Amino acid sequence: MNLTGMMLIGERDVAGSGKEIRAIDPATGTALDPVYRDGSTTDIKQAVALAEAAFDSYRHTTPEQRATFLDTVAERILGLGDVLIERLMAETGLPRPRLEGERGRTVNQLRMFARVVRKGDWLGVRVDHAQPERSPMPRSDLRFQYIPVGPVVVFGASNFPLAFSVAGGDTASALAAGAPVIVKGHPAHPGGSELVGRAIREAVRECGLHEGVFSLVFGSTPEFGQALISDPGVKSVGFTGSRAGGLALMKAAAARPEPIPVFAEMSSINPVFLLPAALESGAERIADGFAASLVGSAGQLCTNPGLVIAVDSPALDRFIQRTTEALGQAPASTMLTPGIHAAYQRGVARFSEQAGVQVQARSQAASQDNGCQAVLFTTNADTFLAGHEVLGQEVFGAASMVIRCSDVAQFHALAKVLEGQLTATLHCTNEDDPQLIAGLLRLLELKAGRLLVNGFPTGVEVSDAMVHGGPFPATSDPRSTSVGTAAIHRFLRPVCYQDIPDAALPPALQRANPWNVGRSETQ
Ligand code: NAP
Questions:
Q1: CA distance 150 to 492
Q2: Whole-structure pTM value
Q3: Is the beta carbon of 220 within 6 A of some atom in ligand 1?
Q4: Catalytic site residue 405?
Q5: Domain boundaries in the chain?
Protein backbone atom coordinates (compact mmCIF):
# COMPACT_ATOMS: atom_id res chain seq x y z
CA MET A 1 0.00 0.00 0.00
CA ASN A 2 1.50 3.34 -1.07
CA LEU A 3 1.39 6.40 1.14
CA THR A 4 -0.38 9.37 -0.42
CA GLY A 5 -0.15 12.15 2.18
CA MET A 6 -3.95 12.40 2.15
CA MET A 7 -6.51 12.58 4.89
CA LEU A 8 -9.25 9.94 4.76
CA ILE A 9 -12.62 11.60 5.09
CA GLY A 10 -15.14 8.82 4.74
CA GLU A 11 -14.57 7.35 1.28
CA ARG A 12 -12.66 10.36 -0.04
CA ASP A 13 -8.90 10.99 -0.06
CA VAL A 14 -8.52 14.65 0.80
CA ALA A 15 -5.35 16.73 0.53
CA GLY A 16 -4.79 19.12 3.43
CA SER A 17 -4.27 22.76 2.56
CA GLY A 18 -2.56 24.14 5.67
CA LYS A 19 0.80 23.81 7.38
CA GLU A 20 3.12 21.07 6.17
CA ILE A 21 3.39 17.98 8.36
CA ARG A 22 6.45 15.87 7.72
CA ALA A 23 7.49 12.86 9.78
CA ILE A 24 11.10 13.01 10.94
CA ASP A 25 13.20 9.92 11.54
CA PRO A 26 14.32 10.81 15.08
CA ALA A 27 17.46 8.65 14.83
CA THR A 28 18.83 10.49 11.79
CA GLY A 29 16.89 13.73 11.56
CA THR A 30 15.83 12.79 8.01
CA ALA A 31 12.49 14.18 6.84
CA LEU A 32 10.29 11.41 5.45
CA ASP A 33 8.01 11.54 2.42
CA PRO A 34 5.23 12.10 1.67
CA VAL A 35 4.25 15.56 2.83
CA TYR A 36 0.98 15.76 4.77
CA ARG A 37 -0.81 19.03 5.45
CA ASP A 38 -3.14 20.39 8.09
CA GLY A 39 -6.80 20.01 7.28
CA SER A 40 -9.13 23.01 7.06
CA THR A 41 -12.30 23.83 8.94
CA THR A 42 -14.20 22.59 5.86
CA ASP A 43 -12.47 19.22 6.20
CA ILE A 44 -13.42 19.09 9.89
CA LYS A 45 -17.05 19.91 9.07
CA GLN A 46 -17.19 17.23 6.39
CA ALA A 47 -15.70 14.53 8.60
CA VAL A 48 -18.08 15.38 11.44
CA ALA A 49 -21.12 15.62 9.12
CA LEU A 50 -20.32 12.16 7.75
CA ALA A 51 -19.92 10.75 11.27
CA GLU A 52 -23.29 12.21 12.22
CA ALA A 53 -24.85 10.72 9.10
CA ALA A 54 -23.35 7.31 9.93
CA PHE A 55 -24.41 7.30 13.56
CA ASP A 56 -27.97 6.07 13.19
CA SER A 57 -27.23 3.04 11.01
CA TYR A 58 -23.99 2.20 12.81
CA ARG A 59 -25.47 2.23 16.29
CA HIS A 60 -28.25 -0.05 15.07
CA THR A 61 -25.90 -2.71 13.73
CA THR A 62 -26.42 -6.09 15.36
CA PRO A 63 -23.77 -7.32 17.80
CA GLU A 64 -22.58 -9.80 15.15
CA GLN A 65 -22.26 -7.11 12.44
CA ARG A 66 -20.31 -4.78 14.71
CA ALA A 67 -18.09 -7.54 16.07
CA THR A 68 -17.35 -8.76 12.55
CA PHE A 69 -16.31 -5.22 11.64
CA LEU A 70 -13.86 -5.05 14.59
CA ASP A 71 -12.43 -8.46 13.66
CA THR A 72 -12.08 -7.29 10.05
CA VAL A 73 -10.18 -4.17 11.12
CA ALA A 74 -7.79 -6.47 13.02
CA GLU A 75 -7.32 -8.66 9.93
CA ARG A 76 -6.73 -5.68 7.65
CA ILE A 77 -4.07 -4.26 10.03
CA LEU A 78 -2.26 -7.61 10.05
CA GLY A 79 -2.62 -7.65 6.27
CA LEU A 80 -0.50 -4.48 6.04
CA GLY A 81 2.46 -6.68 6.95
CA ASP A 82 5.96 -5.36 7.33
CA VAL A 83 5.25 -2.09 5.51
CA LEU A 84 3.52 -0.82 8.64
CA ILE A 85 6.31 -1.89 11.00
CA GLU A 86 9.06 -0.45 8.81
CA ARG A 87 7.30 2.86 8.35
CA LEU A 88 6.74 3.19 12.10
CA MET A 89 10.34 2.24 12.87
CA ALA A 90 11.41 5.16 10.70
CA GLU A 91 8.81 7.57 12.10
CA THR A 92 9.23 6.80 15.80
CA GLY A 93 12.70 5.31 16.34
CA LEU A 94 11.00 2.44 18.20
CA PRO A 95 12.65 -0.95 17.61
CA ARG A 96 11.00 -3.69 15.56
CA PRO A 97 10.22 -6.07 18.48
CA ARG A 98 8.48 -3.29 20.39
CA LEU A 99 6.37 -2.34 17.34
CA GLU A 100 5.54 -5.94 16.48
CA GLY A 101 4.46 -6.47 20.09
CA GLU A 102 2.37 -3.32 19.93
CA ARG A 103 0.71 -4.46 16.71
CA GLY A 104 -0.21 -7.75 18.45
CA ARG A 105 -1.67 -5.82 21.33
CA THR A 106 -3.65 -3.55 19.00
CA VAL A 107 -5.10 -6.46 17.06
CA ASN A 108 -5.93 -8.38 20.25
CA GLN A 109 -7.60 -5.29 21.65
CA LEU A 110 -9.89 -5.07 18.60
CA ARG A 111 -10.72 -8.76 18.87
CA MET A 112 -11.35 -8.42 22.59
CA PHE A 113 -13.89 -5.67 21.92
CA ALA A 114 -15.47 -7.87 19.23
CA ARG A 115 -16.01 -10.52 21.93
CA VAL A 116 -17.41 -7.89 24.29
CA VAL A 117 -19.88 -6.71 21.65
CA ARG A 118 -21.02 -10.27 20.86
CA LYS A 119 -21.58 -11.08 24.53
CA GLY A 120 -23.75 -8.01 25.08
CA ASP A 121 -22.99 -7.37 28.77
CA TRP A 122 -21.91 -3.83 27.84
CA LEU A 123 -25.58 -3.03 27.20
CA GLY A 124 -26.08 -3.37 30.98
CA VAL A 125 -29.70 -4.40 30.52
CA ARG A 126 -31.91 -4.11 33.61
CA VAL A 127 -35.62 -4.83 33.63
CA ASP A 128 -38.02 -3.80 36.40
CA HIS A 129 -41.24 -5.58 35.44
CA ALA A 130 -44.46 -3.64 35.80
CA GLN A 131 -46.42 -4.02 39.03
CA PRO A 132 -49.92 -2.92 38.00
CA GLU A 133 -51.37 -4.06 41.32
CA ARG A 134 -48.84 -2.21 43.50
CA SER A 135 -50.45 0.04 46.08
CA PRO A 136 -50.73 2.94 46.51
CA MET A 137 -49.19 3.48 43.03
CA PRO A 138 -48.75 0.90 40.30
CA ARG A 139 -45.21 0.52 38.96
CA SER A 140 -44.48 1.01 35.27
CA ASP A 141 -42.49 -1.42 33.15
CA LEU A 142 -38.94 0.01 33.25
CA ARG A 143 -36.16 -1.14 30.93
CA PHE A 144 -32.58 0.17 31.00
CA GLN A 145 -29.74 -0.15 28.54
CA TYR A 146 -26.70 1.77 27.42
CA ILE A 147 -26.55 3.47 24.05
CA PRO A 148 -23.58 5.21 22.36
CA VAL A 149 -23.19 8.96 22.92
CA GLY A 150 -22.53 9.88 19.26
CA PRO A 151 -19.43 10.67 17.18
CA VAL A 152 -16.14 10.50 19.10
CA VAL A 153 -12.90 12.34 18.32
CA VAL A 154 -9.72 10.41 19.16
CA PHE A 155 -6.29 12.07 19.38
CA GLY A 156 -3.58 9.59 18.42
CA ALA A 157 -0.73 9.39 20.93
CA SER A 158 2.93 9.86 20.07
CA ASN A 159 4.27 7.11 22.31
CA PHE A 160 2.03 4.24 21.19
CA PRO A 161 1.76 4.70 17.41
CA LEU A 162 -0.50 1.64 17.19
CA ALA A 163 -2.07 0.73 20.53
CA PHE A 164 -3.11 4.31 21.44
CA SER A 165 -3.43 5.75 17.95
CA VAL A 166 -5.59 5.36 14.84
CA ALA A 167 -6.95 1.88 15.66
CA GLY A 168 -5.90 1.96 19.31
CA GLY A 169 -7.84 1.48 22.50
CA ASP A 170 -9.94 4.66 22.28
CA THR A 171 -10.98 3.93 18.69
CA ALA A 172 -11.70 0.26 19.43
CA SER A 173 -13.82 1.02 22.49
CA ALA A 174 -15.76 3.79 20.71
CA LEU A 175 -16.44 1.63 17.64
CA ALA A 176 -17.48 -1.23 19.94
CA ALA A 177 -19.90 1.12 21.69
CA GLY A 178 -21.50 2.00 18.34
CA ALA A 179 -19.92 5.45 17.97
CA PRO A 180 -18.42 6.65 14.66
CA VAL A 181 -14.82 7.84 15.13
CA ILE A 182 -12.81 10.73 13.72
CA VAL A 183 -9.11 10.30 14.50
CA LYS A 184 -6.71 13.21 14.54
CA GLY A 185 -3.49 11.43 13.66
CA HIS A 186 -0.44 12.38 15.69
CA PRO A 187 1.80 14.58 13.52
CA ALA A 188 4.86 12.53 14.52
CA HIS A 189 3.73 9.41 12.62
CA PRO A 190 1.39 10.39 9.79
CA GLY A 191 2.51 7.56 7.50
CA GLY A 192 1.72 4.81 10.01
CA SER A 193 -1.56 6.62 10.70
CA GLU A 194 -2.49 6.66 7.02
CA LEU A 195 -1.71 2.95 6.63
CA VAL A 196 -3.86 1.98 9.60
CA GLY A 197 -6.57 4.44 8.51
CA ARG A 198 -6.73 2.79 5.10
CA ALA A 199 -7.02 -0.62 6.77
CA ILE A 200 -10.02 0.62 8.77
CA ARG A 201 -11.58 2.15 5.67
CA GLU A 202 -11.27 -1.17 3.81
CA ALA A 203 -13.00 -2.90 6.71
CA VAL A 204 -15.80 -0.31 6.63
CA ARG A 205 -16.32 -1.07 2.92
CA GLU A 206 -16.07 -4.82 3.31
CA CYS A 207 -18.65 -4.83 6.09
CA GLY A 208 -21.05 -2.62 4.14
CA LEU A 209 -21.08 0.14 6.76
CA HIS A 210 -21.74 3.84 6.21
CA GLU A 211 -18.54 5.59 5.07
CA GLY A 212 -18.78 8.10 7.93
CA VAL A 213 -18.08 5.42 10.55
CA PHE A 214 -14.41 6.35 10.31
CA SER A 215 -12.34 9.35 9.18
CA LEU A 216 -8.70 10.30 9.68
CA VAL A 217 -7.68 13.96 9.68
CA PHE A 218 -4.38 15.71 10.23
CA GLY A 219 -3.60 18.95 11.99
CA SER A 220 -0.52 20.23 13.77
CA THR A 221 -1.75 23.30 15.60
CA PRO A 222 -3.71 23.62 18.86
CA GLU A 223 -6.35 25.53 16.89
CA PHE A 224 -7.05 22.52 14.68
CA GLY A 225 -7.65 20.10 17.57
CA GLN A 226 -9.79 22.62 19.38
CA ALA A 227 -11.87 23.38 16.29
CA LEU A 228 -12.38 19.65 15.78
CA ILE A 229 -13.77 19.04 19.26
CA SER A 230 -15.80 22.25 19.14
CA ASP A 231 -17.94 21.02 16.24
CA PRO A 232 -21.45 20.49 17.64
CA GLY A 233 -21.65 17.04 16.02
CA VAL A 234 -18.84 15.68 18.23
CA LYS A 235 -20.10 14.15 21.48
CA SER A 236 -16.98 12.86 23.27
CA VAL A 237 -13.17 12.96 23.09
CA GLY A 238 -10.39 10.46 23.81
CA PHE A 239 -6.85 11.81 24.25
CA THR A 240 -3.42 10.58 25.37
CA GLY A 241 -0.60 13.08 25.65
CA SER A 242 0.65 16.01 27.65
CA ARG A 243 -1.02 17.62 30.62
CA ALA A 244 -1.05 20.97 28.82
CA GLY A 245 -2.72 19.43 25.75
CA GLY A 246 -5.29 17.53 27.82
CA LEU A 247 -6.14 20.63 29.87
CA ALA A 248 -6.55 22.75 26.74
CA LEU A 249 -8.96 20.21 25.27
CA MET A 250 -10.93 19.94 28.53
CA LYS A 251 -11.27 23.74 28.54
CA ALA A 252 -12.40 23.87 24.90
CA ALA A 253 -14.91 21.04 25.46
CA ALA A 254 -16.33 22.71 28.57
CA ALA A 255 -16.66 26.08 26.77
CA ARG A 256 -18.91 24.68 24.01
CA PRO A 257 -22.58 25.69 24.10
CA GLU A 258 -23.13 21.95 24.68
CA PRO A 259 -20.17 20.86 26.84
CA ILE A 260 -18.91 17.32 26.18
CA PRO A 261 -16.71 14.90 28.14
CA VAL A 262 -12.98 14.61 27.45
CA PHE A 263 -11.27 11.40 28.50
CA ALA A 264 -7.67 12.58 28.64
CA GLU A 265 -4.80 10.47 29.92
CA MET A 266 -2.05 12.92 30.83
CA SER A 267 0.71 12.52 33.39
CA SER A 268 1.74 10.08 36.09
CA ILE A 269 4.98 9.33 37.95
CA ASN A 270 3.92 5.92 39.28
CA PRO A 271 5.46 5.75 42.78
CA VAL A 272 7.18 2.53 43.90
CA PHE A 273 7.44 1.97 47.68
CA LEU A 274 10.17 -0.41 48.86
CA LEU A 275 9.22 -1.74 52.28
CA PRO A 276 12.12 -2.46 54.64
CA ALA A 277 12.12 -6.28 54.71
CA ALA A 278 11.61 -6.55 50.94
CA LEU A 279 14.48 -4.14 50.37
CA GLU A 280 16.73 -5.97 52.82
CA SER A 281 16.17 -9.36 51.23
CA GLY A 282 15.85 -8.32 47.59
CA ALA A 283 17.66 -5.01 46.95
CA GLU A 284 19.63 -6.30 43.96
CA ARG A 285 16.75 -8.23 42.37
CA ILE A 286 14.38 -5.29 42.74
CA ALA A 287 17.04 -2.93 41.33
CA ASP A 288 17.43 -5.11 38.22
CA GLY A 289 13.67 -5.10 37.59
CA PHE A 290 13.42 -1.40 38.29
CA ALA A 291 16.27 -0.45 35.92
CA ALA A 292 14.73 -2.52 33.11
CA SER A 293 11.32 -0.93 33.70
CA LEU A 294 12.88 2.56 33.76
CA VAL A 295 14.83 2.40 30.50
CA GLY A 296 12.39 0.35 28.35
CA SER A 297 11.06 2.38 25.37
CA ALA A 298 13.39 5.20 26.50
CA GLY A 299 11.04 5.66 29.45
CA GLN A 300 8.33 7.02 27.16
CA LEU A 301 5.57 5.08 28.86
CA CYS A 302 2.82 6.61 30.93
CA THR A 303 3.46 3.89 33.54
CA ASN A 304 7.20 4.54 33.81
CA PRO A 305 8.37 4.26 37.47
CA GLY A 306 9.36 7.87 38.14
CA LEU A 307 9.59 7.73 41.93
CA VAL A 308 11.09 5.21 44.37
CA ILE A 309 10.44 5.64 48.08
CA ALA A 310 12.41 3.75 50.75
CA VAL A 311 13.87 4.12 54.24
CA ASP A 312 17.49 5.31 54.24
CA SER A 313 19.52 2.19 55.03
CA PRO A 314 22.45 0.06 53.84
CA ALA A 315 19.89 -1.98 51.87
CA LEU A 316 18.79 1.17 50.03
CA ASP A 317 22.44 1.93 49.29
CA ARG A 318 22.74 -1.56 47.78
CA PHE A 319 19.62 -0.92 45.66
CA ILE A 320 21.02 2.40 44.42
CA GLN A 321 24.44 0.88 43.74
CA ARG A 322 22.96 -1.96 41.71
CA THR A 323 20.70 0.42 39.77
CA THR A 324 23.71 2.63 39.07
CA GLU A 325 25.57 -0.39 37.66
CA ALA A 326 22.59 -1.47 35.56
CA LEU A 327 22.16 2.02 34.11
CA GLY A 328 25.88 2.15 33.35
CA GLN A 329 25.37 -0.85 31.06
CA ALA A 330 22.27 0.58 29.37
CA PRO A 331 22.70 2.29 26.00
CA ALA A 332 20.82 5.50 25.28
CA SER A 333 17.77 4.88 23.10
CA THR A 334 16.23 7.18 20.55
CA MET A 335 13.26 9.24 21.71
CA LEU A 336 10.11 9.60 19.64
CA THR A 337 10.48 13.18 18.44
CA PRO A 338 12.96 16.05 18.75
CA GLY A 339 10.26 17.90 20.75
CA ILE A 340 9.88 15.08 23.28
CA HIS A 341 13.67 14.81 23.55
CA ALA A 342 13.97 18.56 24.19
CA ALA A 343 11.19 18.40 26.82
CA TYR A 344 13.04 15.51 28.52
CA GLN A 345 16.30 17.48 28.61
CA ARG A 346 14.48 20.45 30.13
CA GLY A 347 12.85 18.21 32.75
CA VAL A 348 16.19 16.66 33.72
CA ALA A 349 17.75 20.13 33.98
CA ARG A 350 14.84 21.32 36.15
CA PHE A 351 15.36 18.51 38.68
CA SER A 352 19.16 18.82 38.57
CA GLU A 353 18.92 22.50 39.53
CA GLN A 354 16.83 21.82 42.65
CA ALA A 355 18.73 22.23 45.93
CA GLY A 356 18.94 18.90 47.76
CA VAL A 357 18.57 16.79 44.60
CA GLN A 358 21.59 14.81 43.37
CA VAL A 359 22.20 13.15 40.01
CA GLN A 360 23.12 9.67 41.21
CA ALA A 361 23.54 7.79 37.94
CA ARG A 362 23.16 8.01 34.20
CA SER A 363 22.95 5.46 31.43
CA GLN A 364 25.46 5.56 28.59
CA ALA A 365 25.73 8.84 26.71
CA ALA A 366 23.79 9.09 23.47
CA SER A 367 25.71 8.76 20.24
CA GLN A 368 22.66 9.30 18.02
CA ASP A 369 20.25 12.19 17.52
CA ASN A 370 17.53 12.49 20.15
CA GLY A 371 19.06 9.78 22.35
CA CYS A 372 17.64 9.48 25.86
CA GLN A 373 20.32 9.20 28.52
CA ALA A 374 18.50 7.76 31.54
CA VAL A 375 18.98 9.61 34.84
CA LEU A 376 18.53 8.46 38.42
CA PHE A 377 18.16 11.28 40.95
CA THR A 378 18.29 10.96 44.72
CA THR A 379 16.90 13.23 47.39
CA ASN A 380 15.44 12.98 50.88
CA ALA A 381 11.82 13.07 51.98
CA ASP A 382 12.03 16.58 53.48
CA THR A 383 13.36 18.02 50.21
CA PHE A 384 10.64 16.26 48.20
CA LEU A 385 7.88 17.33 50.59
CA ALA A 386 9.04 20.95 50.41
CA GLY A 387 9.42 20.91 46.63
CA HIS A 388 6.78 18.41 45.55
CA GLU A 389 5.09 20.89 43.23
CA VAL A 390 8.19 20.71 41.02
CA LEU A 391 9.65 17.33 41.96
CA GLY A 392 6.28 15.56 41.76
CA GLN A 393 5.83 16.48 38.08
CA GLU A 394 6.30 13.95 35.29
CA VAL A 395 9.54 14.09 33.30
CA PHE A 396 8.52 12.08 30.24
CA GLY A 397 11.42 9.73 29.52
CA ALA A 398 13.80 7.51 31.49
CA ALA A 399 14.17 9.70 34.60
CA SER A 400 13.40 8.56 38.12
CA MET A 401 14.03 9.81 41.64
CA VAL A 402 14.83 7.81 44.78
CA ILE A 403 13.56 9.41 47.99
CA ARG A 404 15.42 8.51 51.18
CA CYS A 405 13.03 8.53 54.14
CA SER A 406 14.07 8.69 57.80
CA ASP A 407 11.35 6.15 58.72
CA VAL A 408 8.25 4.48 57.29
CA ALA A 409 6.02 7.21 58.74
CA GLN A 410 7.33 9.42 55.96
CA PHE A 411 5.84 6.99 53.40
CA HIS A 412 2.38 8.23 54.37
CA ALA A 413 3.39 11.87 54.27
CA LEU A 414 4.82 11.38 50.77
CA ALA A 415 1.84 9.39 49.51
CA LYS A 416 -0.47 12.16 50.75
CA VAL A 417 1.22 14.94 48.73
CA LEU A 418 1.36 12.96 45.49
CA GLU A 419 -0.99 13.91 42.69
CA GLY A 420 -3.30 11.34 41.08
CA GLN A 421 -1.46 8.42 39.47
CA LEU A 422 -2.10 5.65 36.98
CA THR A 423 -0.33 3.17 39.26
CA ALA A 424 1.23 2.76 42.70
CA THR A 425 3.48 -0.17 43.62
CA LEU A 426 4.61 -1.78 46.88
CA HIS A 427 7.51 -4.18 47.20
CA CYS A 428 6.95 -6.13 50.40
CA THR A 429 7.35 -9.57 52.00
CA ASN A 430 5.64 -11.47 54.80
CA GLU A 431 8.27 -9.98 57.10
CA ASP A 432 7.02 -6.45 56.45
CA ASP A 433 4.52 -4.88 58.84
CA PRO A 434 1.02 -5.92 57.64
CA GLN A 435 -0.47 -2.75 59.12
CA LEU A 436 1.96 -0.64 57.14
CA ILE A 437 1.03 -2.51 53.95
CA ALA A 438 -2.71 -2.23 54.61
CA GLY A 439 -2.45 1.46 55.56
CA LEU A 440 -0.47 2.32 52.44
CA LEU A 441 -2.86 0.42 50.17
CA ARG A 442 -5.79 2.24 51.80
CA LEU A 443 -4.18 5.57 51.05
CA LEU A 444 -2.88 4.67 47.60
CA GLU A 445 -6.21 3.35 46.32
CA LEU A 446 -7.41 6.95 46.65
CA LYS A 447 -4.47 8.14 44.54
CA ALA A 448 -4.11 5.58 41.75
CA GLY A 449 -6.10 3.52 39.26
CA ARG A 450 -3.99 0.36 39.65
CA LEU A 451 -2.18 -0.99 42.72
CA LEU A 452 0.60 -3.55 42.32
CA VAL A 453 2.64 -5.66 44.72
CA ASN A 454 6.14 -6.92 43.87
CA GLY A 455 6.02 -5.96 40.21
CA PHE A 456 6.68 -2.95 38.02
CA PRO A 457 4.00 -0.75 36.50
CA THR A 458 5.16 -0.87 32.87
CA GLY A 459 3.45 -3.53 30.77
CA VAL A 460 -0.30 -3.01 30.92
CA GLU A 461 -2.44 -6.13 30.42
CA VAL A 462 -5.40 -5.62 28.08
CA SER A 463 -8.18 -7.51 29.84
CA ASP A 464 -11.48 -7.32 31.70
CA ALA A 465 -10.06 -6.36 35.08
CA MET A 466 -7.51 -3.78 33.92
CA VAL A 467 -7.79 -0.15 34.97
CA HIS A 468 -5.61 2.34 33.16
CA GLY A 469 -6.89 5.51 34.71
CA GLY A 470 -6.75 7.39 37.96
CA PRO A 471 -7.41 10.76 39.60
CA PHE A 472 -6.25 13.99 37.95
CA PRO A 473 -3.72 14.58 36.44
CA ALA A 474 -3.32 10.90 35.57
CA THR A 475 -6.60 11.38 33.73
CA SER A 476 -9.28 14.00 33.35
CA ASP A 477 -11.98 11.64 34.62
CA PRO A 478 -11.11 9.06 37.30
CA ARG A 479 -14.36 7.14 36.79
CA SER A 480 -13.11 5.23 33.80
CA THR A 481 -10.24 3.38 32.16
CA SER A 482 -8.65 3.69 28.72
CA VAL A 483 -7.42 0.08 28.65
CA GLY A 484 -9.49 -3.07 29.09
CA THR A 485 -13.08 -3.94 28.35
CA ALA A 486 -14.49 -1.40 30.84
CA ALA A 487 -13.21 1.35 28.47
CA ILE A 488 -16.37 0.93 26.40
CA HIS A 489 -18.39 2.70 29.11
CA ARG A 490 -16.70 6.04 28.38
CA PHE A 491 -18.68 6.31 25.16
CA LEU A 492 -22.05 5.09 26.40
CA ARG A 493 -24.93 6.64 28.30
CA PRO A 494 -27.89 4.97 29.98
CA VAL A 495 -31.47 5.31 28.75
CA CYS A 496 -34.60 4.09 30.55
CA TYR A 497 -37.57 2.96 28.45
CA GLN A 498 -40.81 3.27 30.42
CA ASP A 499 -43.94 1.37 29.31
CA ILE A 500 -42.72 1.18 25.71
CA PRO A 501 -44.62 -1.37 23.56
CA ASP A 502 -42.51 -4.49 23.07
CA ALA A 503 -42.21 -4.17 19.30
CA ALA A 504 -40.90 -0.62 19.65
CA LEU A 505 -38.19 -1.53 22.19
CA PRO A 506 -34.52 -2.00 21.21
CA PRO A 507 -33.90 -5.74 20.62
CA ALA A 508 -31.94 -6.28 23.85
CA LEU A 509 -34.90 -5.06 25.88
CA GLN A 510 -37.68 -6.99 24.12
CA ARG A 511 -39.45 -9.72 26.05
CA ALA A 512 -38.11 -12.47 23.76
CA ASN A 513 -34.51 -11.17 24.26
CA PRO A 514 -33.55 -11.98 20.63
CA TRP A 515 -29.89 -11.10 21.18
CA ASN A 516 -29.83 -13.37 24.21
CA VAL A 517 -27.96 -10.85 26.36
CA GLY A 518 -27.57 -11.16 30.13
CA ARG A 519 -30.20 -9.15 32.01
CA SER A 520 -30.78 -8.17 35.60
CA GLU A 521 -34.53 -8.50 36.24
CA THR A 522 -36.76 -7.59 39.19
CA GLN A 523 -40.35 -8.87 39.17
P1 NAP B 1 0.90 16.49 23.09
O2 NAP B 1 1.76 17.66 22.84
O3 NAP B 1 -0.06 16.60 24.21
O4 NAP B 1 0.13 16.17 21.73
C5 NAP B 1 -0.81 15.11 21.64
C6 NAP B 1 -1.89 15.49 20.64
O7 NAP B 1 -2.69 16.53 21.19
C8 NAP B 1 -1.34 16.02 19.33
O9 NAP B 1 -2.19 15.60 18.31
C10 NAP B 1 -1.42 17.50 19.52
O11 NAP B 1 -1.61 18.17 18.31
C12 NAP B 1 -2.66 17.68 20.36
N13 NAP B 1 -2.57 18.87 21.20
C14 NAP B 1 -1.56 19.17 22.06
N15 NAP B 1 -1.81 20.33 22.67
C16 NAP B 1 -2.99 20.76 22.19
C17 NAP B 1 -3.78 21.91 22.45
N18 NAP B 1 -3.39 22.85 23.30
N19 NAP B 1 -4.94 22.04 21.80
C20 NAP B 1 -5.34 21.11 20.90
N21 NAP B 1 -4.64 20.01 20.62
C22 NAP B 1 -3.48 19.83 21.26
O23 NAP B 1 1.76 15.20 23.36
P24 NAP B 1 2.98 14.58 22.54
O25 NAP B 1 3.16 15.27 21.26
O26 NAP B 1 2.71 13.14 22.50
O27 NAP B 1 4.22 14.76 23.47
C28 NAP B 1 4.54 15.95 24.16
C29 NAP B 1 4.61 15.68 25.64
O30 NAP B 1 3.43 15.02 26.08
C31 NAP B 1 5.71 14.74 26.08
O32 NAP B 1 6.95 15.36 26.21
C33 NAP B 1 5.18 14.25 27.40
O34 NAP B 1 5.47 15.15 28.43
C35 NAP B 1 3.70 14.19 27.21
N36 NAP B 1 3.16 12.83 26.96
C37 NAP B 1 2.78 12.11 28.03
C38 NAP B 1 2.27 10.83 27.82
C39 NAP B 1 1.84 10.00 28.97
O40 NAP B 1 1.39 8.89 28.74
N41 NAP B 1 1.94 10.43 30.20
C42 NAP B 1 2.16 10.30 26.56
C43 NAP B 1 2.58 11.07 25.46
C44 NAP B 1 3.07 12.35 25.70
P45 NAP B 1 -0.62 19.29 17.78
O46 NAP B 1 0.56 18.59 17.28
O47 NAP B 1 -1.44 19.92 16.77
O48 NAP B 1 -0.31 20.20 18.93
A1: 9
A2: 0.96
A3: yes
A4: no
A5: 7-127+149-266+478-496, 271-453
Q: Which amino acid is at 76?
A: R
- Which residue, among 189, 191, 192, 170, has the nearest Cα to 181 in the 3D structure? 170
How many C-beta atoms lie closer than 10 Å to residue 376's C-beta?
A: 24
Sign of CA dihedral 159, 160, 161, 166: negative
Q: For residues 156 and 170, is the Cβ–Cβ distance under 8 A?
A: no
pLDDT digits (tens, 9 = 90+) for 307-328: 999 999 999 999 999 999 999 9
Task: From 22, 158, 229, 450, give the residue whose CB has the most ligand 1 atoms within 8 Å, as the site to mutate.
Answer: 158
CATH T-level fold of 271-453: Aldehyde Dehydrogenase; Chain A, domain 2 (3.40.309)
Find, among 189, 181, 127, the residue nearest to 162 by Cα. 189
**Ligand 1 mutation pick, 170, 224, 242, max ligand atoms within 8 A of CB:** 242
Per annotation, catalytic residue among 102, 302, 405, 419 = 302
Fold of 7-127+149-266+478-496: Aldehyde Dehydrogenase; Chain A, domain 1 (3.40.605)
Query: What local confidence, expressed as pLDDT, does residue 319 receive?
Result: 98
Q: Rounded distance, CA 157 to CA 165, Å?
A: 5
Residue 367: per-residue pLDDT:
87
| Tens digit of each residue's pLDDT (9 = 90 or more) over 344-399 | 999 999 999 999 999 999 999 988 889 999 999 999 999 999 999 999 999 999 99
- Write the CB contacts of 97 (distance below 8 Å, at least 6 apart in sequence): none
DSSP 3-state assignment of 21?
strand
Residue 171 CA to ligand 1 center (angstroms) comes to 17
The set of residues, in sequence order, having a beta carbon less than 8 Å from that of 40 and lying 6+ positions away, is: 16, 17, 18
